[in-house]
Amino acid sequence: MKRFFRILLVFALMLTLAACNKEAGFPEVNDNDKVDLTYDDVLDEFDGVAMDNQVLKIELDADIEAEGLNVSLDGSAHFGSGAVMLNLKLAGDMPEGNLDGEATIYANNTGLYFDGAVDIDAEGMKMSIEGKYKLDDMVEGFFDEDVDLNEFLELDFTEMFADEQFKKLVEEYEGLTFYKNGNKFQLKLIVTNELLLANKELLLELLDMGEPTDGQEIDLEFVLTIEDKKLTALGVRLDLTDPTEDLKVSLTLTANVVSEMPEFPTDLEEYEPFDMMSLFMEE
What we know:
By secondary structure, this protein is an alpha+beta fold. The protein has helices at 2-15, 39-46, 149-152, 157-161, 164-172, 193-198, 200-207, and strands at residues 34-35, 55-66, 69-79, 84-94, 97-108, 111-122, 125-135, 176-181, 184-192, 217-227, 230-242, 247-258, 272-273. The longest helix has 14 residues, at 2-15.
């Protein structure tokens, strides 16, 4: 079960490199479709579930404050069998510095390409990149063969949920609910301060968290959508405040399977070779 949440973390980490396009939106559930399921029923629903090997589109909108760091991130990413496209827009303050930038990154079997402008000024060190650049060595060999998204993400829901921890969650936790309508199945998990305090032993291990601290506030919503035994959508909303760690996080993350990869620019061959020294600017 913890591996399932590590996959969510992988999505989030990929998106910290990724401008926000909210076309798909957060997956919603219909309360009229709510059903009571046993643990075995839930395993049956997940049995054989896979992801269509088309294009995985991930989007993120996040604000993070932590120990002098105050950053806003808007990002989108498209992952296909032979290409990746990332969009990035970020702005914020860091201890003794700031960062600001917007860029698009393309990757396929011909190389890694950057188009944008990013400036970082941190602790007396300034770095800047602006323009269109090609970085051949960074993806050499990665796209020589088609990438199977199920293998790349190690998606095996039967194995993921076949443990006592998830069984307890299904049988005991009121914040986990299920929805069915025809061939559509949805799972919804919510965690609030009240639910966390009432189910500490179960949730702290699941979320890999320490004991709640004074002033800590958490509001988590996670929705997973499966249609015809295919994973089609995933959404995470998180608001977290922890005064003891000087931490405040607000984010919305969605992942949807779409049919097509956005078109790449036609001038990639004209992108300049990248020089690492061009990152550094004299004061």
